[in-house]
Amino acid sequence: MEKRNVINLIDSIPRKALEENWVRSYDKELDFFTWTKKDLDEESTMVKVSNHTFLYISSNIELEGVALEYAKSNFIQHSDLVNRPDIVSIFMGKEASENDDSDETSELLFAKSIQSDIFKELITTNSVESVDGLVSIATESKEASPPIK
Q1: What is the tens place of the pLDDT at every residue in 130-148?
Q2: Which range of residues forms the domain containing residue 85?
Q3: Furthest-apart CA pair in the chain: how many Å?
């Protein structure tokens, strides 16, 4: 996979999240957030692309979702969303199934924040090549672990 393909996957986060009506889940105890297609490809793989951000990549190298490790304690605290508790409560509120509380603007802001975080880290660490390698290995490996559901 070429560098531009990895960048295109990251760039597609806001569009795909909205168009495909991704489903959110937040585990408060683990502080782990996922936002994925309702029906992930059985062969999809989680690929770590920054300190706390993962992409779900299908066997066809299509983006199927994102995951945030230490979502509130790290990601939110270092993102543009730190000043938007309204949006944070929608996505990481009392119940993981509160998907109907959001609107398109909130979803777009949240998705763009995730996208921005990944790009910032890739730029500051100059690690597009390593992400490219991870995506290639993950999508080509028959032994890759299935996604966390």
Answers
A1: 555 555 545 454 344 444 4
A2: 3-140
A3: 42
